[in-house]
Amino acid sequence: MPKNSKETTETNNENKEIEIATEGSISIQYESFRKMLSHTLRFANESKEENQQVFGVCIGEYLQDKKSYIVKDAIPIGHGDAIELGWSQEIHESIETVKSEYKDVSNLIIGWYHSHLGYGLYFSNSDKVNNLYFQNSENPYGFGIVIEQTLLHEDPNFGVEAYRLKDFSKGAESEFIKVESKIDPPNSIQFFKWVQELVESIQNKNSEIIYEFDELTKPSPEILQEIPSSGNDEEEIEDKEEFSLLYGVNDGMEKLSDSFLKTYEQQLTLWMKDISDDVLNGSEYIRSSINNIKTTLSSGLDDAQRIFDRIFSEISSLFIKNIHTSVDTRLNNQIDLKKSIETITEEQLNNLFKRLEKEIRDITNILEENITNIKNDLETIAQTNRSILKSLNQNNEMLHTVYEETDTLSETIIHHIEDSSKGFESKLFNELEEFSSNMSPNKEIYGEIEQLIERLQKVISDLRQIK
Question: pTM for the whole thing?
């Protein structure tokens, strides 16, 4: 994910209250926290020209009855844009190799960690996708630890928070929730020696604070890139102050050790002298000696803790200054990029408008030509229609004349038929009567003749009705 996109996501998340999980607490042991912080500071400190994000896997144990995790170790895996852009095949193979080496129920891959470079404490969309590799049906409370280095000196938990998906079955669409986590305090002075080595590695341009998994598994590990120092006078003065603080840590440790040995030696001598007199009295001295040692050790650790806080405060101030400079530079670059994009966009729009105007003119010319042709065709069709209408009118007149002549002829024929039928009828009746008188003996024949006459009358009647 681009850095600006990250910052936008952070702003959106600042305005949204993050839900806190009720199950699945996490306890981060000192050694695992030391490795996470070393990995983070190796690739992100005030001496780096460009800081990079880091990520790795968490090794530990899941206490099912308490639904809690214990992070016992951390394995650095990689750094750079792969965290946001997606893990490569090589990264997946590295994780699978680590998984094959940690199969014991008390030492399994239970989650992962990664750093943010001033983006805040939350889960981005790419963080959700990555977390699905660890949070699944086999490990429903799989988590991701976020380390925000800019909060090292401000946050009581050193800028470390843990998150997981609220419902991993929804994938990256799920909301993320905060998981209760705590960092176990150091239980030995080795922690303060590590702080000294950490600061010296940055000041002495030696970035070999911690190695990533692939660097350790290669036959001939490449020499890690040294972390350059700033070289400014102000930073040199701060470096001297840090050395002075570290000298104070060492001096405090030496005094603590001398006090321990001296006290123990004195009490042991007294005990040896009085052992023959009173064994119980010697035991009381031993208990008193041990109490004195505990008091001295506790006081020394408190002093060292305060020195450690001061060292982190100084280092963090340098981080913050470098981050402000980096952010200002990036903002200026973004402003220049915005102006460049606006210029290019304006040029592209002008070119687009010109092409559109030309295409519109061409289309308009074609449409005008087609419209002219259509008008001509319509005029031709109109003329043809007028000719057809004229012919139809003439034909109608001719038909009307024919109808009139036909009616006249029909009436004439009917009149002629009526006139002819009257004379024929009277003549026929006369002849029939004469014939009937002559044929009276033949009544049957006469009856038939009457029937013929009736039929003839009917025919005549039908002829009259014809018009």
Answer: 0.46
